[in-house]
Amino acid sequence: MAKVHVYGDEFDENCNQLVSSESQQQFTGGNPMGWQKHDYDSIPGTYVFDGKRSNSGYNLNRMAYSFIHKNNRDEFAADMDAYCRKYNLSDEQREAVLAGDFLKLMHLGGNVYYLAKIAVFHGLTVQDAGAAFHGITTEEFKQLLRDNAAGFENKLQQEGGYWHG
């Protein structure tokens, strides 16, 4: 039997996890999805887009991705609530979409790049959404971007014209 390892978990060739349910329950503390606690979970205001958040935000992000097609954007603009229901968003996600509560959407599994697509329907720019994520004004966010960019050209030149993160 062939075994495949994915992020430390072992699976057979049919993608069946090769850990008994009893040992899985012990390993995950009884969490049936197998999500583990991380150090970053206890940092206030930190919403890491990890597997758990990705899983919980799948329908939300799938809906936002659908906006690549004009007919879907038009349908969403005509009735946001119905479109959210079409994609089976949780009530909490749907209410946050309708309210334009981007920080809440991030907490509920929204990917920042997809949330920017939703921001447009609320008359917001990416900078407006970024400011909302940080809990500051748009002008403060723009200044934060400028401050973070200070010295970038010099750093880029020192790296030979390539940015390595």
| Proportion of residues in β-strands | under 5%
Q: What does the main sheet amount to?
A: 2 strands, antiparallel
Number of helices: 11
Principal-axis shape: globular
The total beta strand count reads 2
How far apart lie the N and C ends? 41 Å
Describe the structure.
- With 165 residues, this protein is mainly α.
- The protein has eleven helices and two strands; from the N terminus they run ββααααααααααα.
- It has helices spanning 21-28, 51-56, 58-65, 70-78, 80-86, 91-99, 102-107, 112-121, 126-134, 138-149, 152-158; strands at residues 3-6, 9-12.
- The chain has a two-stranded antiparallel sheet.
- Strand 1 and strand 2 (9-12) form a beta hairpin.
- The chain is globular and about 50 Å long.
- The protein starts with a strand and ends in a 7-residue tail after the last helix.
- Mean pLDDT is 79; it is low at 4-9 and 11-30.
Summary keywords:
165 residues, 5% strand, globular, 2 strands, two-stranded antiparallel ribbon, mainly alpha
In brief, what are we looking at here?
It contains eleven helices and two strands.
Architecture blueprint of SSEs:
Layout: E1 3-6, E2 9-12, H1 21-28, H2 51-56, H3 58-65, H4 70-78, H5 80-86, H6 91-99, H7 102-107, H8 112-121, H9 126-134, H10 138-149, H11 152-158
